[in-house]
Amino acid sequence: MTHALHCVGLRPRPKFPCLTGDADDRIMKRLFLLVPVVPVIVVTACLTACGSSSGPLRDASQPMMYVSSQRAPAYIADCLESHLSRVRMSNVGGATEIAVGSDSNNSYFVTLTPYNAGSVIKVMHPANAPDDPPEPEMRFDIARCAT
After folding, report:
1. Of 147, 11, 144, which Cα lies nearest the Cα of 81?
2. Which residues cross the membrane (predicted)?
């Protein structure tokens, strides 16, 4: 028996208007080069949007933070007192008010109001107040104590 060897020609790959592309396609190669850059851009944009709100555009009449927590006001107050220096507390009605900073020039005013089984936390930072502790640290400590 003789076997006939047949040469089968490969058919050319379709280039256009095929939507799937292949690794030899120049457009696909360019897109593959951009793939690692896109997550970096997205992460940078998210961090910029979620970053500190300090700066000349911040409205000091609005709360710097206004969040609710499942924690009781007493727990949050004790936690903040243990993590921040120069903290003074007072009770006004059912709310706990916390002044953070030096006695002569407070940096932040935190109001803890009971709400259902948890609390509502409002943090004010006056326009002329010093940034002590720095705003990112203050935000971190509030988040740590609220969760």
Report:
1. 144
2. 31-50
49, pLDDT greater than 70: no
The predicted-structure confidence for 51-61, as pLDDT tens digits, reads as follows 555 445 567 78
* Whether 67 contacts 121, CB under 8 Å: yes
Give the up-direction half-sphere exposure of residue 77: CA atoms within 13 A in the CB hemisphere: 20
User: What architecture is domain 65-146?
Assistant: 2-Layer Sandwich (3.30)
Which pLDDT band holds residue 74 (cuts at 50, 70, 90)? very high
Decide if 86 contacts 31 (C-beta within 8 A).
Answer: no
- Which residue has 């970096």 as its token pair? 40
Q: What is the bridge-based pairing of β-strands 106-115 and 118-124?
A: antiparallel
Average pLDDT over residues 29-56: 53
All structural domains of the chain with their residue ranges? 65-146
Q: Angle at CA 91, nearest 5°, toward 89 and 96?
A: 70
